Amino acid sequence: MPQLFPGRYTAQIDGPFVVFLIGMRVNQLWAVHKWLPVTQAMPRMLRELFTQPELGLLHAEYAITWRGVMVLQYWRSFDQLHAYAHARNAAHLPAWAAFNRAVGNNGSVGIWHETYEVPAGRYETVYGNMPAWGLAKAGTHLPATGKRSTARDRFAQPQP
Questions:
Q1: Helix crossing, 78-86 with 92-102: angle to 10°?
Q2: Can you give the pTM of this predicted structure?
Q3: Within a domain: residue 90?
Q4: CB-count exposure of residue 36 (10 Å: 0-12, 13-18, 19+)
Q5: Which residues contact 152 (CB under 8 A, 6 or more apart)?
Q6: Do residues 67 and 97 share a domain?
Q7: The domain containing residue 9 runs over which residues?
Q8: Under 8 Å CB-to-CB from 3, ≥6 apart: which residues?
């Protein structure tokens, strides 16, 4: 079980970063042979990324939705995310090709992603009675006290 941090905490990360949300949605529940391989592709990619931090992934968290899975990812830069997505020697391109061969446009499985580039210091976080999570694991986990006690103060914090 992860360590819980009683009280309020926040996160700090140096410089700009990228938030990448990616997910899949099961559109046809009975098409297990279509959506199960899609669910198995992301763990392979994340293992690859976690063992090679120079590729730019800072942290990732899974979330289960009613008909699918979402992965919240933090990247050092959009260029590193884009480079990984197009690297011929990485796990992503074969997974993408397999998806297009097996599913394509047949509607059994939906996929999506959203990418946000966050300028240095233009974010705010708070975690109450939580283990370190999200941006706090990608950056630094800090008590939300003093100049970090309110959302406005956390948002206005100068970056090192």
A1: 60
A2: 0.92
A3: yes
A4: exposed
A5: none
A6: yes
A7: 5-13+122-155
A8: 131, 132
